[in-house]
Amino acid sequence: MFKLRDEDTAKRILKDIKALNADCKLMHVCGTHQDTMVRFGLEELLADVGVEIRQGPGCPVCVTTSTEVASGITLAKAGKTVCVFGDMMKVPTTIGSLNDAKADGADVRIVYSIEDAVRTASSSDKDVVFMAVGFETTSPTTAVPLNKGVPDNFSVYSCHRIVPPALEAIFSMGEIKVDGFIQPGHVSVITGLGIFEQFSSKYKMPQVVAGFEPLDILMASYMLAKQIAEGRAEVENEYSRLVRKDGNPKAQELLKRTFTAADRAWRGFPVIHGSALDIRKEFEAHDAAKVHQDILERMPEIEEEPRGCRCGEVLRGLIRSEECPMFGRACDPNRPMGPCMVSHEGSCNIAFRFGQRR
Fold this sequence. Notes:
The chain folds into 2 domains: 4-59 and 166-237, Rossmann fold, CATH 3.40.50.11750; 61-162 and 248-296, Rossmann fold. It is 43% helix and 16% strand. It contains 18 helices and 11 strands. The longest helix is centred in the middle third of the chain and has 17 residues, at 214-230. The chain is globular.
């Protein structure tokens, strides 16, 4: 499971956690953290020393709503070239998936970066739409080409989200009692630590920004257990090898120049104030929501959640993936009912892939 040296370190960390009599429930908001936890069997190791960790809304594909996915399908069926990341292709809606649209002849293309989509537009006479998905980690990459200049036939349909408003929603909804938060290291590389301090002061919530290796997760769990045992509520930085207190000021400035905060629903959540990134008016000539508004207004009504799918509850940390009655039966990666089973950062997909190993 671990390298020998790391295994010895892991045993020491687990021993120290057990000595704190932790008995706590933690939450993280990062698909990569979930992958590490399940892949390396950390859930069971931590449970043995009194620590339970639930995944919150940390998968960007998963929190993207069916309405947004259906918007991409509608644009593709209207003759636009729609460029998306691969994880978006199989997300189901009541009007099908982007994969279905492609099978029916629509021009839907998998890209690995926004630059791929820009190059597609440069070599095409058709309108090209890039569906931009992701948190603060990936939104600067969307901002760069918009500021540098893109072809006239290129636009962005922004599905970008920002993390702090979703955390506020979890706290204010009060559905789940959480004793501490493991915060995402890659988001924090951009934002710094300050965005999380409001939750320590307002909700007395211990928080640790963590990296993505097994020892990072274990160490973050120990740091949180120690805060809880000592009655502290601070934002600590386990991922100091990459995360700086002030983050990346240049990336932050780029985001402010390109996007504006907007109210939007997340899958499994109501509308969350200021939780999404809309493209600023200065770039509206490349904002697909404005450029192709007439097409999007003709989109048929859809149901946000397929009947029987409990993806929303998984994203709010209320249930584990395995507690959904559809998990591994009516729903698996080949026949997903929801995005949590589609995306490689989705809790259901991760649980399915590594469940047999466990």
